[in-house]
């Protein structure tokens, strides 16, 4: 669903630039107005629940920034555009609670506005924990970062922060002060990085101490960044955004490395490593775990007759449907036309029924190519027999898949029986 953005700007050139930039982003639905009066009408009518607003500081009917107070009165995140830089004015606006103050210098300025809007959307799902024994320091950070829509949590001590991190592993960032009772910030970072082996959490150390070596100690122990108290709100925003984006970029690179380039499913290397963990857990806790190998029938014939481009379309279709129907399980493309699914908690009866339904669903699908429609079927081998290693389970599933091919294809074969193409 697109987010409604209120753009209040009287310059036709700026409006044209903003409109052009926002057209590229389907997540936004911009509403353009040129005056304070028009903005007031839109806001009072409540026809559009605006996610954020981008406003010109000097409007024909509001030359002294009155539009900022109007937008903030509706508790809408407000990005301010100005034709000139005024440091005192910037500080006043930040004290009021704006998201940012941006000077209209070039196209880069407007691109930064779009980046901020995108960041606000993402920030709603980013949790940040502030650990500081100073209530005023915690409040400052919470208030400043809440303006950028981050989910904010707080802790008074290092031990309390550690407990919160264990309870909520989806926390993305920790802002930690050095001086805290029970466990100081340095020891907290050390515990997170070395004892808990948590490498994904982004950590920013802060301190009001004069020691120049403290920042180096923090970073050597595993912190991503360091801020010396007191720091400006704008500096905090920049450091947090920079580190969050760097963390997201690393995660994206890692995810890309774990994905099959054609289908977007996990690749063999990632699947084997992750599936081995699930298998060992199932063995230790005596849990059900089903493993299935799936193969597209007569795939070589599809490539030979229609070409590899059409073959790629079939593989993409298969990957899309697998991701859609088995999203709660671990799914991967092993290579060529072979795919696999690991189903923790599923016994053979339920996994076979689920796979049989998927097999029938696949046979009802088609791909339009030039003047004809291409359909395809799949064969599946599935086992629940837990083996000491994943390779042994894969070998068993491969044996069952071979039986499905020999028995006529478009079948699901388990260790006990097979399910033919007409079974539901």
UniProtKB/TrEMBL annotation:
<feature type="domain" description="GGDEF">
    <location>
        <begin position="287"/>
        <end position="417"/>
    </location>
</feature>
<keyword id="KW-0548">Nucleotidyltransferase</keyword>
<feature type="modified residue" description="4-aspartylphosphate">
    <location>
        <position position="56"/>
    </location>
</feature>
<feature type="domain" description="Response regulatory">
    <location>
        <begin position="4"/>
        <end position="119"/>
    </location>
</feature>
<dbReference type="InterPro" id="IPR001789">
    <property type="entry name" value="Sig_transdc_resp-reg_receiver"/>
</dbReference>
<dbReference type="InterPro" id="IPR029787">
    <property type="entry name" value="Nucleotide_cyclase"/>
</dbReference>
<feature type="modified residue" description="4-aspartylphosphate">
    <location>
        <position position="177"/>
    </location>
</feature>
<keyword id="KW-0808">Transferase</keyword>
<dbReference type="Pfam" id="PF00990">
    <property type="entry name" value="GGDEF"/>
</dbReference>
<feature type="domain" description="Response regulatory">
    <location>
        <begin position="127"/>
        <end position="244"/>
    </location>
</feature>
<dbReference type="GO" id="GO:0052621">
    <property type="term" value="F:diguanylate cyclase activity"/>
</dbReference>
<dbReference type="InterPro" id="IPR043128">
    <property type="entry name" value="Rev_trsase/Diguanyl_cyclase"/>
</dbReference>
<dbReference type="InterPro" id="IPR050469">
    <property type="entry name" value="Diguanylate_Cyclase"/>
</dbReference>
<protein>
    <recommendedName>
        <fullName>diguanylate cyclase</fullName>
        <ecNumber>2.7.7.65</ecNumber>
    </recommendedName>
</protein>
<dbReference type="InterPro" id="IPR011006">
    <property type="entry name" value="CheY-like_superfamily"/>
</dbReference>
<dbReference type="Pfam" id="PF00072">
    <property type="entry name" value="Response_reg"/>
</dbReference>
<dbReference type="InterPro" id="IPR000160">
    <property type="entry name" value="GGDEF_dom"/>
</dbReference>
<keyword id="KW-0597">Phosphoprotein</keyword>
